[in-house]
UniProtKB/TrEMBL annotation:
It comes from Rotaria socialis. The keyword Transmembrane does not apply. It comes from the Eukaryota. Residues 1181-1208 form a coiled coil. The lineage of its organism: Eukaryota, Metazoa, Spiralia, Gnathifera, Rotifera. This is PLAT domain-containing protein.
Amino acid sequence: MKSKKKAEIRDIQSNEEWDLIYFHSTVIDIYQEWAGPTMVFEDIFVKLKRNLTQAEYLIFYSANCENIELLKRYRDYCEPLLLFFGNKILVHVQYHMNAPQIEKSIEEQLSKELQAIKENRKREPMDDSFLTKFSDNNGSQSIENKETLSNGPILYKDESASLRSLLMKTAEKVDQDYWLNPGSYKLDVALFVIKPDLVANGKKDEILDYLRSKGFLIHMHEDKLLNDDELINIFKPDSNVLDEFIRFMSSGSSTCAIVSKGHTGRSTSDDLRYIIGSNDPDLARENNPDCLTALYGTDNILNGFYSSHTNNEALKEIQIVFPEYQQPVIKGKSIDEYPHKTATLCLLGPAHVRSRKEAIIRAIIQHGFEVRYEKTYTFRPDEVESLYIKHRNADVFKPLVEAFIDGPCLLLYIAKENCVSDFCELLGPFLREDFSKMPGTLRHDFDETTMPVTTIHGSESIIDARKELEQFFPYQQTLTVIKPGLTPNQKNDIFKRLNLNGFTILMKATRHLTKDVLTQFYARHQGLPWFNDFIQFMSSDICEIIILAREDAVQALREIMGPVDPVRAKTDAPESIRAIYGLDIMRNGLHASSNNKHAREEIRLFFPDFEFIKTKPITFHSNVLTTDATISNDLPITDENDLYYLQSHEIMYELAVHTRTNENENEESAVFLTLMGKTNETKKLLLQYADNNIHPLQSNQIDLFHFIDQDVGVPKLIKFSHDGRGFPKNWSLANIEVTISSRNKIFKFDINELILEEKLSYPITDIIDIEPKTNGNCAITIQTGSAKYAGTSADCSILLSGSQGVYAFQLRRSLTNRIPFQNRYRDVFLVNVDEQLHDIQYIVLEHNNENSTPAWFVDFVIVKILLSQQEYFFPVNRWLSIDYFDGKAKIIFSTDKQKISSNEIIRYEVYIVTGSMFDAATCSPVWITINGTRGSIVNKYLEIAENESFPFEPNNRDLFILYDIDIGELNKLILGHENGNAEQGWFVESIAIHIPSKQYQSEIYKINKWLNSKRIDSAPLVEIQIRKPMKLNRNIKHQQATVPQLMSNTIIHSVPEYESSYTIYILTEDFQSDLIKQNVFIDLINETMSTNFMRLNSKIETRENLERNVLGQFKAYGSHIGQINRIRLLIRTPDQITRWLPRCILIIIDDSQQIFKFKNSHCIIHSNTNGFLTLSMELEESQNTKQLDNIENQLENLKDDYTKETRKIVIDKRNSETYNK
């Protein structure tokens, strides 16, 4: 019977076999390689062949979508997946497993196909875009350019002078360069070993010279005969080759060298392993013929070389070989590296993949680039259009799209210092007429003259590189389960392989899984014949459950793991984990998530509290100023030394752990410590990497650890925990001392006992005061703005001028922050001035406009002379930037009226609401003057909003923070807008001011006015007379406010009542956006008039109403229109990427209950360079009814039609309360 089934279904494994298929009444089971064909389908197909009267017309196939280019788009959707072809046209798709439904669908499609043949007609093709990320019909989309919006202004004409331009430029510099940290740091090094056979053959000097030519610095090297213990601790050989390995390594001396590369050495281990290559010389010659193992290796033991796997392992290995060696300390600047700063994307089109792939990769490597990852990818037209959207108006755009969809492409993740700029230089210009004159570039040397355009692509900027790498090599987390039956040595080898392939272990647990948990975990396979036996096997012993992270982690792990059948794995992927350790399909070594969706579901099952990470984490901590703090509370003056110290969100902890005994001295113990205060606690602090010892927590040893975490106040308890492997054997502690330098105190916890599971927390026993570190008599406090890019990496300085002299200081070492002048930072600098200095006449604050992000927004400066107790406050509230505002990076402040106490400095919160019209926004300067009974705050520019990246966008409620002197009770506001273009303006709805320290807030003052000096219907500024502020009632969240009397030369009119309201239902098929807050507008049009663009409002967040497969309800208000023939949709997304496919739109005129229905199949695509794009739709049908039930029926029919067309379930969010329940 089995052979008969196999005869019924032919398995397609290649493009050539696919081309020979007879596509008439053809049913194809699409599967992925790891899963294999769907076994149940064989029974269904045999049954249909036997029972159907016209079964001879049916042909069944199974096809591997991994090997066939036209099917690769269906990867991750085979759960399972059936395609039905009629006369070479895809006419039906069956998704998910439902045997009766599959039988019924095949019978129906066969009947339709026979009818079409009888009538001699073609069937309509099936749109399978619901299985893929984007729709395929975008090539014919109808989009109006922004120039067609004649009835609205074009915003941001002068981008070069706008704050928006400055922030975007700063963002790119942040990504392009490095965070610089002044001060000394330890250079990371690695151990490099040349094995005895090469040393005996005289190859040592040749190999060391080769390393030097690749940029490695050799600090020292020595020929040594390593003993057995040293060999085992360094090389950790497998037990099955242990004797042979020791015999070979003991045959002569090995050359041991300490090497480093780069400013910090952080990439030394990775770069060294890449230079050495695979342990297997045969694989090395195949994959990287220029590596050392390929050039000098013979077999897995005589492979020539060894290097440290990680920088942490390197320190331990170096200590074994060179026990007296001290890690170098570098005086200079340390660089925090992370992949997007040193990586870019390279894409080879189909023509280059077919003919020049290996040569191009070799050329890239020869120019010093590291190819970290590579994968083949088949593009759809819309993906190429999105990739080259900057060239969409060029003549080469259409040939470019056609060239990239001609076959499989190759994606390369390449890395190098200054990678993006260096690779762009190596790549050459985009146009053939330009790169044809530049020999030595990739596009010149590997030009395919038969193609109209080049198909070698590289990211053009740091921003592009980041987005493209995140698209094609996304940073993902995936789950793997090491199944029962593997030995500890086999598990260790698996961990090594994962590490060598770039995976990071985020969490690990050893568990005995119950049958209930396993049944839930493998629910997708329930009902299959082997299911019960498999659950029995998985519950027979403990499993290792691991969360792994890497770029493109899900697919990469499956490739390393190999096919599900070990027999097939030994043939197709002999170096895979399953090929080496798998016994059969059930005992194949380990499980891995099949796609990103399953990975998240499986991780949630085993680790419900796990927080998924979208980007690779950066090891960077900061002290940030809390948003609800006031200066008088944030900057107290201590009685002991009259110095400022910061009560901030995060502080530095120094832990001194005194260990008495530990019998696991050669093993790393994953032990955690948590500091607990009165109301909160720190995260778990890992006691693994001590600052003063390579092997921490050893007997009779004191280890120092430094952590930055949230401030818990006075630590009350310490609590120990571990990662599931238990505490070290007989681990006894004497005490732990926690030093908080900013408070000049040591908190001591006496323990004097073994650490056991029964008792994990210990109370504080003593608090010790320590001498403060004072080395100055003048304190300078500088508050940096709170915007994302308000901080500076430039070198800053300050000049103090008094009657007794002038003093200039470089501002480098902050008492409160490791890296000064970052956004939201309050930095305190202690400097020395002469004792005769008693007053300050003026100060000069400046920076040198160098390094990556020089632009700097400063809130204020306070100078305090400690000897005379004189304080001077300087409200800055401006940018220091040559690219913005007045172009100054140097400002001068006099002290005529600034000699005040810091207690008089308060925080003002200004709330401004911009109008909801699509053209209500502005990027021109906005300023405010606040008058009070004791003084004024004059002409303060509102540039940095607390809650928005770009302020003054439509319908934004922006919060601005001003620090200034207490001007008493407020009595007047003046709000102004500097705009010289009559076409532009800013529509401001309302303004309010809060003063938290006084517990007062103003009313919400309605303005509803255009601010523009050149518009006829507007005013250049508004002046508001403030009533007496009302005291805050903290128990009432929303308070009613009345409109005050306004004092102005301009009469301010309120916005007139809208003539009509509209209820609009939108069913969205696809939505992609980087922007959290969308602004959507609609224009209703007939033969005689239009409503102009009206904003769509909803009870829930607009983004939630625009998600995929969501039916959202909106309200719009505007002029009355009786008939609707056409509509225009507009989505405003400044400086973001957006793609929106609204499938159906239903519009109801509320007063007449007329219904107008529109259908659509085109996308709105908006990018950084577009400005505005709109989508026009013609009327499909209309009906006039006043019965609400008919409206409900229309909506239900709309949802049913959508489900039938797309096979997707509609999520109805019209009633937000019902939806939330």
